[in-house]
Write a structure and sequence with these properties.
The protein has eight helices and 19 strands. By secondary structure, it is of the alpha+beta class. It has three domains: 65 residues, Substrate Binding Domain Of Dnak, Chain:A, Domain 2; 95 residues, no CATH class; 154 residues, Umud Fragment, subunit A. Strands 1, 9, 10, 11, 16, 17, 18 and 19 form an eight-stranded antiparallel beta sheet that branches. It has a four-stranded antiparallel beta sheet with strand order 6-5-4-7, with no helix packed on it. A hairpin with a 6-residue loop joins strand 18 and strand 19.
């Protein structure tokens, strides 16, 4: 049977009003709810009577009453964005806590598999702004150009600072009381750019002129080791708490609120393994290491230098061996000639392991992608 348009519209309005009243009945003002319900009852009766004039009149009356029960919000969009941001923050914290954590490669001990900070001095001033911006985004490269404006100014201190609240940098304090800030870590500034305490500069002479590639940044998989034990050949991250011989210097990486710092190395020995190095080869349980990561280091190609003897504590010479005790692990850097690893300070307790290297997310160089 044909239903007149006014009846359909009245029924739709009535249905919407019921939803609003049910949704807001605990928070809306009682008098607004009472007036809305009375008008709804009257509209229901008019629909049954099939009275178009009454349906139209009561419909017009009901609409503003619904607005009082469920007033419009001028800032609904802002509220929704705030809620979205809060949910995203909660999700990010959950991911960081239970699955993925960001980690910044602090040193060159894993090169060329993973790059730490690499700095170079140059003779020329930095390129223009657009080139610098592009290289920062793609290569993680930052340029510095600091020139002495005082004759005979001497470096008297170099201390770490945070630039713009989050960027690791240095403050170079001069004998003239001038202080220059640069976006390069103090250790890199001294070891790679030759800016050291006691060095004197002439007026107009560059104190720092060059660039630094800020190192690979990756996600650490914190989840998998809850179900499977660490495997030989994996790149893994661990805290240094309680490991004798490692100085507490606070390098970049997941800290978990604990004292100490975090290192990243390749897992060379699991509990029970016996290791030996006969340059450039690594031997595990009497056999040459078979995992692909070890093979790349041993190849002495593409920047790899092979495994080295000569450490004071373990694997000093080709005849030295070390056996990994229960619930401990032996860590080696891929840059064996320049890596302070288990050859120097011993074993990594199982409780110290954070997770395995998962994915290099920045910069967008040849290392971008899954860690191998």
């Amino acid at each position: 049977m044909f239903t007149p348009t006014y009846i359909k519209e009245g029924q739709q309005l009535l249905k919407a009003a019921k939803k609003v009243v049910n949704y807001r009945k605990d928070v809306a003002k009682p008098e607004a709810l009472d007036r809305t319900r009375e008008t709804m009852d009257a509209l229901q009766a008019a629909i049954k009577e099939k009275s178009p004039n009454k349906v139209e009149e009561l419909g017009k009356k009901l609409v503003p009453l619904i607005g009082r029960v469920q007033p419009p919000h001028d800032h609904d969009m802002i509220r929704e964005y705030v809620e979205l941001i809060l949910v995203a923050i909660v999700c990010a914290l959950g991911i960081r806590t239970y699955y993925l954590a960001p980690f910044k490669i602090p040193t060159g001990s894993m090169q060329p598999t993973l790059n730490g900070i690499i700095a170079h001095s140059t003779n020329n001033p930095p390129p223009n702004f657009f080139v610098r911006a592009f290289q920062l985004i793609t290569l993680g490269r930052t340029y510095e150009d600091v020139v002495s404006d005082t004759e005979g100014d001497t470096v008297i201190d170099i201390r770490p600072v945070k630039l713009r609240y989050f960027w690791d940098g240095s403050e170079i304090v001069m004998s003239s009381n001038r202080a220059y800030r640069v976006g390069v870590d103090p250790r890199v500034l001294q070891s790679q750019l030759n800016v050291v305490v006691g060095r004197t500069f002439h007026k107009g002479e560059p104190i720092v002129r060059g660039y630094a590639d800020l190192g690979d940044q990756l996600f650490v998989d914190r989840f998998s080791y809850n179900f499977v034990p660490p495997s030989r050949g994996e790149v893994f991250v661990f805290r240094t708490n309680g490991i004798e011989g490692i100085r507490e210097e606070g390098l970049g990486g997941p800290q978990d609120g604990a004292a100490g710092q975090s290192y990243i190395k390749r897992l060379a020995g699991v509990p029970g393994d016996t290791l030996r190095i006969d340059q450039p080869k690594l031997f595990i349980n009497g056999h040459e290491a078979a995992e692909e990561g070890f093979k790349r280091v041993e190849s002495q190609q593409n920047g790899f230098t092979g495994y080295r003897n000569g450490a004071p504590e373990y694997l000093r010479d080709p005849n030295s061996t070390v056996t990994v005790p229960p619930n401990n692990y032996f860590a080696l850097g891929d840059n064996s000639a320049n890596s302070a690893d288990s050859r120097y300070w011993g074993f990594v307790p199982g409780r110290n392991i954070v997770g395995k290297g998962f994915f290099v997310y920045w910069p967008f160089t040849s290392h971008w992608g899954f860690v191998k």
